[in-house]
Amino acid sequence: MSQLGRPTSGKRRLKDLLDQRDNRVCADCGAPDPKWASANIGVFICLKCCGVHRSLGTHISKVLSVTLDEWSDDEIDALIEVGGNASANSIYEAYIPEGVSKPRP
With a threshold of 0.90, does the pTM exceed it? Predict the structure, then answer.
């Protein structure tokens, strides 16, 4: 079916989303090739930022491995609904004060 449509396998839908340009780098620090995601926040993140997200607790950020964990259709749908890194960051970074920069890899 379509790129992010339903009938394709969950792993395929997740990979299609990860392959989008803005999702090829960590949403938080810009490190290339993120292998983790926050299912409820809707971003792809690197291993280092994954540790920070995990320390927040699953009630804040539910972190899953893109390759190692089993994702439910609902988790994938939620990630797709957010739209990935660019969409989520346009919300979460909308009011960052001038002069404050993102962490680096």
Answer: no
